[in-house]
Amino acid sequence: MKYKKGYKYQLVEDEVINLPGWFMEETGGIETDFITINDVCLVIKKGYAWDGASGIPDIANQRASAGHDAFYQMFRLGLLSKDKYKAKSDALFMAMCIEEGTPFLVAQLYYTVLEKFGDRAASKRRKIYEC
């Protein structure tokens, strides 16, 4: 058996996140088993697992963290340019947090942490364990 550790949540239905006009450039679309990205939306499919926002209370950012983790996964898989989209995905996380009730200054702090320290998470692949 092979498996990965560290997941906290798993979707029981598809989640659609509409992307702002400033977000995507023409990609031609990206499709994986659990994530679809096109020029107008991100679809995170039923069964997608993620670990939430690292070190941040989850109350008002579960949806934002799912979207953010999906983008970072696309960076790690080499399907989406980290150089082109990391800053945008961090800004989208902040905007979604604010939209869902996180105070602006708290969301700004989240963004600053992602901006300064998120590069490692955008590059690191999860270890695969065997038993």
Mean pLDDT: 87
Please describe the biggest sheet, giving its number of strands, its sense, and whether it closes into a barrel.
4 strands, antiparallel
Low-confidence stretches: none
What number of structural domains do the residues give? 1
List the helices and strands in order: EEEEEEEHHHE
- Structural class, from helix and strand content? alpha+beta
Radius of gyration over all CA atoms, rounded:
14 Å
SS elements, strand count: 8
Portion in strands: 15-25%
Describe the protein's architecture and organization.
The protein is an alpha+beta fold. The protein has one domain (2-125). 40% of the residues lie in helices and 16% in strands. It has helices spanning 62-76, 82-99, 104-123, and strands at residues 2-3, 9-10, 15-18, 30-31, 35-37, 41-44, 49-50, 129-130. It has a four-stranded antiparallel sheet, covered by helices on one side. It has a two-stranded antiparallel sheet with strand order 1-8. Helix 1 packs antiparallel against helix 2 (82-99) and helix 2 (82-99) packs antiparallel against helix 3 (104-123). It starts with a strand and ends with a strand.
Short description:
The chain has one domain (2-125).
Salient structural properties:
4-stranded antiparallel beta sheet; single chain; 8 strands; globular; 16% strand; alpha+beta; 3 helices; 131 residues; two-stranded antiparallel sheet
